[in-house]
UniProtKB/TrEMBL annotation, chain A:
Keywords: ATP-binding, Nucleotide-binding, Transport. Residues 4-238 form the ABC transporter domain. GO terms for biological process: quaternary ammonium group transport. Gene3D superfamilies: P-loop containing nucleotide triphosphate hydrolases. It comes from the Bacteria. This is Iron(III) transport system ATP-binding protein. InterPro entries: AAA+_ATPase, ABC_SmlMolc_Importer, ABC_transporter-like_ATP-bd, ABC_transporter-like_CS, P-loop_NTPase. The lineage of its organism: Bacteria, Pseudomonadati, Pseudomonadota, Alphaproteobacteria, Rhodobacterales. One of its GO terms (molecular function) is ATP hydrolysis activity.
TrEMBL record, chain B:
Belongs to the binding-protein-dependent transport system permease family. Gene3D superfamilies: MetI-like. PANTHER family: FE(3+)-TRANSPORT SYSTEM PERMEASE PROTEIN FBPB 2, INNER MEMBRANE ABC TRANSPORTER PERMEASE PROTEIN YDCV. It is found in: Cell inner membrane; Cell membrane. Residues 67-273, 356-548 form the ABC transmembrane type-1 domain. This is Iron(III) transport system permease protein. The chain crosses the membrane at residues 20-42, 71-95, 102-126, 146-172, 193-218, 251-276, 297-319, 359-380, 400-416, 423-444, 476-497, 504-523, 529-551. Pfam families: BPD_transp_1 (PF00528). One of its GO terms (cellular component) is plasma membrane. It is a multi-pass membrane protein. GO terms for biological process: transmembrane transport. Its main location: membrane.
Length: 368, 565
């Protein structure tokens, strides 16, 4: 039985459809990242799970219990979840201790138990020394920890986080990501984490749901999304992916015979015969000796990144504008390069139907 | 589950019940009583003609006279309010001068001082025994000239002048500096800039302020009661009062018609005002920088403005205070006969002490209940808006918009008969109900405004951890709006403690208020005692302000009405 199950959920605000036909199943203990560009409906989906919004259609189940459906609606008060808000939403009239303790008081926990639990949670997030401060006396990172501690104190089955790192600087973000991973492992709770930053998602999530314009484009492990994107949008969104328009002339077992720039390549993919996208990452492109390689291109410019030269080139004759690859040495602007495609993944272009096949990646069901 | 109209789609049942409870409360306290006025006014006449009562009352000579007086006196007072308000606002707003804050405070003072105290002060100032004018040889001989239509218009004009002043100051503070600078660079002389650039921009605000002053004048009871009744200049509010006093509830029908007439005039002015403000609002396209006065006021202007302000805000109160130190009515004031006899007398008088006690607990109770209504209302309005709540929003405003006399009459009509065996007519409860209806907006508005700034996520965060509605209201929401709640509650205390309009019609023996006490002492001819009670009540008012000031140090933000500029 899946832990969290969203069945054909839609949500509209008045005329505007914000979510359409969302289906998703998640095993217990997963760390799901909801990833997508701004305005695609991530926050709305998270608030639906929390019970802060009511779906216009569809149903939502948690551990076999229907939380929202055509005739049911469990209020957020009664769902027993934890949530960390983007603005943190700390209660300014209470101290750090008070913020963390409030939920325990609501549950009627005894004073001594409460004290022990608060101390334990504050120690977990490293805030023991600041228990008596008010929220306005804390730094952004400290507030973030209080918000986290507040949601951990009740030991919920599931914790929802809405862009919890958006207001932090890059360095702090890295250490908080590590913290999230640690807490996820330590508590065993399911985490659902909203972000529009794919690096963040790749860094922490066991599962990623890529959203676009109110739909889920694809759900899968980070590796699945990286290696076998289902749509061009996912391919481009994950790890600076690139897509080239190609033609699949035939399928050859698991491989697609792919026509690119007058040459035929055998590449793995899900596309049937017809127009297709070849999905590439920087790592898939290498330099070939002159006269060899699959694409000819001219260097546009370079930046030095992570010890290598990230090189942007304009390919010739293949209908794509810019490709990027990492080189070990600097190259002058305007140099002609020969590029070899070492690997890639071929998907159907608009209208084309993907070949129903093997991999679990083609369904939106994700098994642990 | 209750239907969605009672709250937003994710609202729990607690929220929905709360909306229903608030709706019933407003229905009972505001809508139903005011509705009685209409039902009564539209009754058939004695002979059964439809709308006969209305026809009879409207054609009566007394009605015509009161209507004419109301309009004449109100228009006269508006002329004074606008003239004074414009002159003062332009001088204070456009010229640089010393002690501007003190000046502004004095200009706003007539708004804080209750009507009956204002009227009494002017009576003492212009009496033949005037402690201020007589030593100067300026006291009028014979009859006091303030007992006249002109006198009523003057005192009401000064009392409502701050409404115009505030409207213009607000408009001036939004005047883009570059409009004036552009004119100066074009070498346009100052008087011309004022006439052709600044005044046209201010015109809508002047009109709006004037209409507000008109509504206030039409509904004013304290001034025409103290000045107009002796002078035999009846206006609609005092005619209603005299009819009810003379004939008792049998006059209710006629009086209801008068009340409708009064309401129509007041509401028409307010509607016109909101129409004008929408139509005439001038889209400003200047740099964001607001105009700042840099021209120092010439000496003569400073002397004039201080003289005017002393005349309208200080001299009358001085006359009142000096009168309260006289040993007996009719004695002329001099340094040798200053006495505390009046204070000894009133402080030894059980009825006076009871009036102070009554006003204190009535206004305190009213403030407390209004807070208990306003906080949940503001919470729902900010976090769970719905159609029923929007309806409540319209309804709560009604008893504040219509003249107070109409609200008092509404309470009489609604609660004259016992309801389910309980009669509250002739008890303090009817005064409390009237206060609750009339003064609720004073705390509701600021709290609702503060609630709009409350981050909804704070409430949602509390829901997620399982906190129920009452807990969220009490422990998350209330602390967030505490400052404006306290500010509104103090405003209610200050207003209700000194009101006369409602209690003049609703008081009963044992349930007198301070206003009623001042009014009856003056009516009995004991003007020195009336002066002493007025001075004491003004001191009490200042004491409450001071206490609030002390209290506000422990509150976040600018809690008090007078701290927001
Ligand atoms: N309460 C609401 N009423 C009307 N429209 C709404 C409401 N909440 C969200 N929307 C709309 O729904 C769409 C999705 O909003 P949502 O906040 O879920 O996006 P998001 O993916 O979280 O974006 P971001 O990354 O910018 O936070 C937006 O177009 C937004 O304008
Ligand atoms: Mg969002």
């Amino acid at each position: 039985m899946p832990h969290l199950s969203l069945r054909n959920i839609s949500k509209s605000f008045g005329e505007q459809d914000v979510l359409t036909g969302i289906g998703l199943e998640l095993p217990a203990g997963a760390f799901l990242a909801l990833l997508g560009p701004s305005g695609c409906g991530k926050t709305t989906l998270l608030r639906l799970i929390a019970g802060l919004e009511r779906p216009s259609q569809g149903s939502l189940w948690l551990d076999g219990r229907e939380l929202a459906g055509p005739s049911t609606f469990v209020l957020p008060e009664a769902r027993g979840l934890g949530m960390v808000f983007q603005s943190y939403a700390l209660w300014p009239s209470m101290t750090v201790q008070g913020n963390v303790e409030f939920g325990l008081k609501v549950q009627g926990m005894s004073r001594s138990e409460r004290k022990a639990r608060v101390a334990e949670v504050l120690a977990t997030v490293g805030l023991d020394a600041l228990a008596d401060r008010r929220p306005h006396e804390l730094s952004g990172g400290q507030r973030q920890r209080v918000a986290l501690a507040r949601s951990l104190a009740l030991r919920p089955r599931m914790i929802l986080l809405d862009e919890p790192l958006a207001n932090l600087d890059a360095h702090l973000r890295q250490s908080m990501l590590a913290e999230f991973r640690r807490l996820h492992a330590a508590t065993g709770a399911t985490f659902v984490f909203v972000t529009h930053d794919q690096d963040e998602a790749m860094a922490v999530a066991s599962h990623i749901a890529v959203m676009s314009q109110g739909r889920i484009e694809q759900v899968g492990t980070p590796e699945t999304l990286y290696r076998r994107p289902k749509t061009a949008m996912v391919a481009r969104f994950i790890s600076h992916g690139m897509t080239l328009p190609v033609e699949v002339t035939a399928r050859d077992g698991d491989l697609c015979r792919t026509l690119l720039n007058g040459q035929v390549l055998g590449l793995p993919g899900s596309a049937a015969e017809g127009p297709a996208w070849l999905c590439l990452h920087r790592e898939d492109l290498t330099i070939a000796p002159a006269g060899q390689g699959h694409i000819r291109a001219e260097v546009l410019g370079q930046n030095f990144r992570n010890g290598r030269y990230l090189t942007h080139v304009t390919p010739q004759g293949i209908g794509a504008d810019v490709l990027s690859l990492a080189l070990d040495h600097p190259v002058a602007q305007g140099t002609a390069l020969h590029i070899r495609i070492a690997s890639g993944w071929v998907i159907a272009r608009d209208g084309g139907t993907p070949v129903a096949s093997q991999g679990a990646y083609l369904t939106e069901r994700v098994d642990a | 589950m209750l239907p969605r109209m009672f709250g937003g789609s994710d609202a729990g049942n607690g929220e929905r019940w709360l909306v229903i409870a608030l709706f019933l409360y407003v229905l009972l306290v505001s809508v139903w009583p005011l509705g009685q006025v209409f039902l009564t006014a539209f009754q058939p006449g004695d002979d059964g003609r439809p709308l006969g009562l209305m026809a009879d009352t409207l054609t009566a000579r007394a009605t015509g006279r009161a209507l004419k007086n109301t309009l004449v006196v109100s228009l006269g007072s508006v002329a004074i309010s606008v003239g004074l308000g414009v002159a003062l606002a332009l001088t204070v707003g456009l010229l640089r001068m010393r002690a501007r804050a003190a000046l502004t405070f004095l200009i706003l003072m007539p708004l804080i001082i209750p009507s009956q105290t204002m009227a009494l002060s002017w009576i003492e100032l212009f009496g033949s025994n005037s402690p201020v004018l007589r030593p100067l040889g300026l006291a009028p001989q014979g009859a006091n000239p303030i007992y006249s239509s002109g006198g009523i218009a003057l005192v009401m004009g000064i009392e409502h002048m701050p409404l115009v002043f505030i409207a213009i100051r607000a408009a001036l503070s939004g005047l883009p500096a570059d409009l004036v600078e552009a004119a100066r660079i074009a070498a346009i002389p100052y008087p011309r800039i004022l006439r052709s650039i600044i005044l046209p921009i201010l015109a809508p605000s002047i009109l709006a302020g004037g209409l507000l002053a008109f509504t206030a004048a039409v509904g004013n009871f304290g001034v025409p009661a103290l000045l107009g009744i002796p002078a035999r200049v009846p206006v609609l509010t005092t005619l209603i009062y005299q009819r009810l006093n003379g004939f008792g509830p049998e006059a209710a029908g006629q009086v209801a018609v008068l009340a409708i007439l009064l309401t129509l005039i007041a509401v028409a002015a307010l509607l016109l005002r909101s129409l004008l403000t929408r139509q005439l609002r001038m889209p400003m396209s200047g740099s964001g920088r607001a105009f700042v006065a840099e021209h120092a006021a010439p000496g003569w202007a400073q002397v004039t403005i201080w003289a005017v302000v002393l005349m309208i805000a200080v001299l009358p109160l001085a006359a009142l205070t000096m009168t309260s130190f006289l040993p007996a009515v009719g004695v002329a004031f001099s340094a040798t006969n200053v006495s505390l006899a009046q204070y000894q007398a009133v402080l030894g008088n059980d009825a006076v002490l009871r009036a102070f006690a009554n006003s204190l607990w009535l206004s305190g109770l009213c403030a407390a209940i209004c807070v208990l209504v306003a906080v949940p209302y503001a919470y729902l309005a900010a976090h769970r808006p719905g159609p029923l709540l929007a309806a409540i929003d319209l309804m709560v405003e009604a008893p504040w918009v219509v003249p107070g006399t109409v609200v008092a009459l509404a309470m009489i009509l609604a609660f004259l008969q016992p309801i389910m065996g309980v009669s509250i007519y002739g008890t303090a409860a009817i005064i409390v109900l009237a206060y609750l209806a009339r003064f609720l907006p004073l705390v509701l508005r600021p709290v609702t405004a503060a609630a709009q700034l409350h981050d909804p996520a704070q409430d949602e965060a509390a829901r997620i951890i399982g906190a129920g509605l009452l807990r969220r209201l009490g422990q998350i929401f209330a602390p967030a709006v505490i400052a404006s709640t306290v500010g509104g509650a103090i405003l209610i205390m200050m207003t209700a403690m000194n009101e006369l309009t409602l209690s003049a019609l609703l008081w009963s023996t044992g349930n007198e208020t301070i206003g009623v006490m001042v009014f009856s002492l003056q009516y009995e001819g004991n003007s020195t005692a009336a002066a002493a009670v007025s001075v004491l009540s003004t001191l009490l008012l200042f004491a409450i302000c001071g206490l609030a000031q002390l209290l506000s140090r422990h509150l976040p933000g600018n809690a008090l009405p007078w701290q927001n500029g």
